[in-house]
Structures are given as structure tokens and as C-alpha cells.
Amino acid sequence: MSSIRAPRKRPKKTSVGGDLSAPTPAQWAKMTSYGSFVVTDAQGQEVVFRLGDTAAVLPGNKKIGEALELHKYWVVKIMAIRGKNVLATKSRGTRGKGKSEYWIKIRWFYSPTEVSWRIPGFQAAHCSKYERIYSDHSELVSALTFNELLSVQKFHEDDPDQPRIDCDQFYTRYFLKTSSKQAQISSYILKTSMDLGHSVGCICGKPYDVNSAELFHIMHLCPRPRCRGFYHSCCLLEHGYWTRMTHPLLRLSNSPDTDEIPMFASKSSKYAARLPADLLLLAAQPMVRGAALDSLGLAGNCHDVTFARRTVYAAMQGTKVPDKWRDCVDLAAAVVDSHLPMLELDGTGEELVLMCPHCHGPI
After folding, report:
1. Among the CATH numbers 1.10.10.10, 3.40.50.1820, 2.30.30.490, 3.10.280.10, which is that of 25-186?
2. Which stretches does the entry tag as region Disordered (predicted)?
């Protein structure tokens, strides 16, 4: 547990995180601004917190020094640092000897449960215990409550280039606006429904449940720029969005960079012998995510499959495949065909592939 190098008096907290002993606006205006402050952890190591950092702070109902699992800490983003009676250099804002006091202006990351209290219909159950919802809710908190630095990764659900997010990693995919008369929540997505002309979610209207390990709850992405939607495999099957798998490399016709079918994709067999077999195998994978494929983390294999398809497209146009391309992907985890249900046409045994509801491309 981190501790400030000064006598520690536990600030009084309200149930929503407001600090009753926080400076008034007039007092805050008179305090000195700093770019950082320092705490000392349980091992005696200094931890520097700077403007813009994300950090874990001790919840108001916990005592300093009390053991606590990381996901149970409150999460904040540091917006401003001010102090009074601080005997230290302004550039670091570290504590000197004598009585001193730091107050930090933060923005809260809400827990899913807290958001469900404010947004009727928000389903906290579909979120991970490491999921946080960034907000515009700002308060002053004492530096005494800061525990450690954190990284909270932004999760763009419609991004085929979304980097990996491990299951025990903090992330955020929603933003909560509290400053309006009625709280509003929005997703971090690259293109809105207005941009695309259709919903960016599954046809069932349900969000991505990161906890559901049901095999048919795995979601498939259509990476085309005009689509960029994830769909539950069970929903696609139920509504008839499937077609015959006419070629093992059929999904190569679905590019993350163009709405058109790449002119060379139809000639993929011609190039297959010239390219690494495992690269082609990866490029032909469905872009999927879901708890049933936990080795892929929360964001699925989209990043690796996107890399593979772009590499294949470039090779088909004459660009040499990089010698160390395998270092850029998790090949073992991203090849998922053997972990997905085999879809076959009744009575014929013909293999099927799921289709995007909007462009009808193979996904």
C-alpha cells in the first residue's frame, strides 16, 4: 500500500467519493500548481504521479494499509495537482519536511455497477470486473488515498486494429456524461450509426458480454469500412446470414481497408503457393471475439487477422513478405478454426460460412 511521506490523517469520505475536507473553490484557487507528486510504496520505492496519469485510489470505506484486490480500487485520471505548505521544488511537487497537503483534481472512472445506478437498462453483468467507464465527473481527492499507477486501455469495439486486451487488464469502452441534466452513456467507436447508416451492434441489440463462454455467443466482425459490426454467431444463423464456403480463402475478399472486393482476392489460389501457408491460414480466419476463446483476450483475434490480410494483399501486389512477420502476431491463439463449431449444410455436408447482414460478405 502506498503512503505519502507525511503524517497520514484519513480524510472523511462521502458514499460517492466526495471528500468533506476538500478545499473550497476559493481555497483551491490560492493553492500552488504542481506537475507531479510522490508517494512511497510498501517496499519503500517512490512512485511519481504526474498530470494525465491514471491511478488507483483507496475507496472511502477502506482503511489505509488494508489489503485490497486491485480491481476493487477506485480508478481516476489526474487532471490537476495543487498543494499548500509544500517545501519542495515546483517541478516535482514532492513533499518536504513539515506539515504539507496535496489535493488532486481527478476525473472518475465509474464501475459498471455504479453506471447501472444512473443509467436505466445498462447491463453491468455484461462487463468484466476490470471494466471501467470514463466520465466527465470531476472532484478533488487527497493525495493520501493514491495507491499506484494504472493503465486503462481504450477499447474501440469496431476497430479491426484494436490491440490485445488481457482479461485481467483495466479497459474502458464507454464514456459517461454526468454534466447534462440526465446522465448519458456512449461507446468508444470509430464510426457512429449515423456515419454508417445502420446500427453498429449485433442484430439482437445486445452488447458484447465479455463473461459469456457460450460457444455460439462468439461474435464475428465484418471489417469492411462501411460495416464494422460484430454479430453473435447464433444471431447470424437464426436469421439466415450464411452461405456456402466455396473456397478456403473466401474471407480474403473481405478487406478492412476497402468496401470493394480486392481485385486480386479472386486470384488468391494463384498466389497461394508463393506465400507462407501459415500466413494464408491466419489471413483466412474469421475475425472473432468472446470468452469461449479466452486465449485471445477481450478484443479477439482481429488485430492479428487484419495484419495477416494486409500482408497477403501487399504480397499479391508484389511486396515481399517480411521475414519476421510471425513476430507481429500470436499465431497459435489467432488461428481459431479448430475451436469453432463446424457449420455444414444439412444433408450435404457442405461447409458454410457466416455472412455480414449489411454487405453479405463472408465473415
Report:
1. 2.30.30.490
2. 1-22
